[in-house]
């Protein structure tokens, strides 16, 4: 009996070692290994939409939490080596100016249709500071404008430097945003934004225009939930980072009765799954058949 008690622990150890070495293998495990979708920060609207897409399309893929910067780095590495990769993507984004990319068709419309980015002001801004409110109401630009600012930031400029460069190169457009009458007194303006490449670009352009008008402007980067709570509570004067109706729709529904929606400042925004154009599939429905190339 004493021999039995000595052998059993050894057998248990061998079983555990076998499980560790062979049962928990990495990406070289063969046909049962899931494909990989490179995502961004957990909790982002596009991540929730991608989880829904995995379920709706029955994808044998794992969504990998990451960050916007890490996703872009993974994309660059794959493209440099002409490897297949699928990432969560959105337009506008500098990556579309940097590389040849395409969205995979979404026939079930899990990601929804085209989105817009809206300017949201706190209730009372129009009466408290009509000049700032008018400028924010007139602010409107195109995806290519935003992508130009994003690409300059990606290439090494600070957000303020890239914003100033775009303003100088597009002064006629900026003049269209300026109020008809200048306020006699200037004050402080607080802008909230989510720290996405797109919203860093738009917020700093607006910030710098307001500073050129004579205002002291503070731009505060927070996560999406805090941004929406802040604008709903009046902690921010405005945000120019509202992706609607899909990405930030749930947040907006909670505060819409307590804010001033000034409408779209950019149209043609989109979210979905993105691949390099050399990838030979065109639809989310084709991902499972190509799973071995996306591991």
TrEMBL record:
Residues 1-23 form the signal peptide. One of its GO terms (molecular function) is carnitine transmembrane transporter activity. PANTHER family: GLYCINE BETAINE/PROLINE BETAINE TRANSPORT SYSTEM PERMEASE PROTEIN PROW, GLYCINE BETAINE_PROLINE BETAINE TRANSPORT SYSTEM PERMEASE PROTEIN PROW. InterPro entries: ABC_Gly_betaine_transp_sub-bd. This is ABC-type proline/glycine betaine transport system, periplasmic component. Pfam families: OpuAC. Its main location: membrane. One of its GO terms (cellular component) is ATP-binding cassette (ABC) transporter complex. The keyword Repressor does not apply. It comes from the Bacteria. Residues 32-168, 188-292 form the ABC-type glycine betaine transport system substrate-binding domain. It is found in: Cell membrane. GO terms for biological process: choline transport; glycine betaine transport. It comes from Desulfoscipio gibsoniae DSM 7213. The keyword Amino-acid biosynthesis does not apply. Keywords: Cell membrane, Membrane, Signal, Transport.
